[in-house]
What does this fold into?
Amino acid sequence: MEQNIHQTLKSVFGYDQFRSAQQEIIERLLAGRDCFVLMPTGGGKSLCYQLPALHRDGVGLVVSPLISLMKDQVDALVANGVQAAFYNSSLSGVQARRVLAELHAGQLDLLYVAPERLMSDDFLARLADIPVALIAIDEAHCISQWGHDFRPEYRKLGGLRQHFPQVPIVALTATAEPHTRRDIIERLQLQEAQSFITGYDRPNIRYTVLEKQKPFSQLRTFLAGRPDEAGIVYCLSRKRVDKLCQQLVDAGFAAAPYHAGLTDQQRREAQERFLYDEVRIIVATVAFGMGIDKSNIRFVVHYDIPKNIESFYQETGRSGRDGLPAEALLLFGYGDIQVARGLIEKTMNPEYRRIELHKLNAMIGFAEALGCRRRVLLGYFGEQPDRDCGNCDICLNPPEMIDITEDSRKALSCVYRVGQRFGAGHVIAVLRGSSGERIVRLGHDRLSTYGIGADLSQDYWGSIIRHLVHRGYLSQDVGDYSVLRLTEASWPLLRGEQRLEMARPRIRAEQVGRKTKAARLPDGVVADEQLFDRLRRLRKELADRSGVPPFVIFHDR
Ligand code: ADP
Ligand code: MG
It folds into this structure.
């Protein structure tokens, strides 16, 4: 093929320009080097491997976890005149043999293959005599237990590098926080892989968190306010999906359910009715969404808390693909933490369980955030926006600000004094002068920061530390027992060259009429002790099970 990549972009794919990092990624693959690509859903990851496969000798192998996605992609490629096929368990014997014949005849530019097929001895033996242009691992987070959608069949892909030492490998995913990224690169043994990380921000999506009180009427009010708009309502279980969907239909909304308990036929129908605007609301479990191409989804409601921020980001990201304003509403209730935890507890592997509990904790942190939601969300993926978004519920209805410069310095010094080797629970215990056995054993009761924050509540320190994490003044590695460490940004604050403010915690008694008892909090903040106790217990339980110190957070709004 004597075209340059710009010509191919136009003649095969019909586009005039590359988007963001596409060109750089393609050029790097053409030079035979590995890449790691982190690009939000809809960002244009496919082109990054499809186009260079056409420019290099041999077949481009694409690993993808979902049979239906493979088919869609191959159909689109074939329609553009590309010689593409897929090889997975959905093929009949005859079809499979035809694909293999084409492969051996060198007639394929791109072959989509299921991970377990690719790594089978038979298939690897076939590939021994066939030139391979590149190998693309789509949805690469599936290889990592740290990812939000671990798939055991992806594990074997770790052997690819040995089998194909000379072939460039590109790993692509839409959602991986820094720990998962490192894990993917290690497992695939990518060599000097350059990482391409493109903007995570979806500025047209407005994030709102509401305390879950009467969820159905909260949802109804929300839906009634946007009568002609299409959207998805996510629930954590099939049972909740069925029940809620029925309630909505009874209330006169055009809604359809979607979950893995329905037949293929029923799911296909629900999806199509939604795509063709026959129903405007899909009530679904996480089973719904991957590969859905509907650009005018105007809202995504999480009726229950998602298990982690990756899922939340991905699910809310299905709204507003057309760039027009969209709403992401999370109904957050403490009871749901139990449900989410229950789902995680079902997972047998203890390591996996520990990770998932960490991630759930981070998700709760988002729901409880006192500052700009977008900041928290992007911060989780390692991006630090230079200003608040001005569009989330917190930015639009800002809580009162308090100066936390001095307290932040105390917290940062304490993190430093304990050697940057402990999580929030321990740091807070030292600040508050706890005489716990561990503190004494470690000699942390002799540190200069011991007890310097004894006049303030544990909850207050919890929210200070969370704020410092969200704002990038502390890093908290969920992959390493949530250990707190200073960052570059910590120093100006520690040196007193900078001031810092935080939203005053907004706390509301959960049960109206219950007498509340004032805790030691900054002026004017009143805590509901009972509520705190419940929260504290929940968090502690969560933390115990995940093996990290408890991290107590304010009940916000
Ligand atoms: P991802 O896999 O990152 O979710 P896709 O590869 O499916 O995204 O691409 C999303 C959409 O963007 C597709 O409709 C695709 O055709 C389109 N697209 C990709 N690259 C470009 C480009 N350079 N110019 C215009 N549209 C593009
Ligand atoms: Mg994709």
Summary: The pocket of magnesium ion (ligand 2) is lined by residues 45-46, 138 (CB under 6 Å). The chain has 24 helices and 17 strands. Residues 350-367 form the longest helix (18 residues).
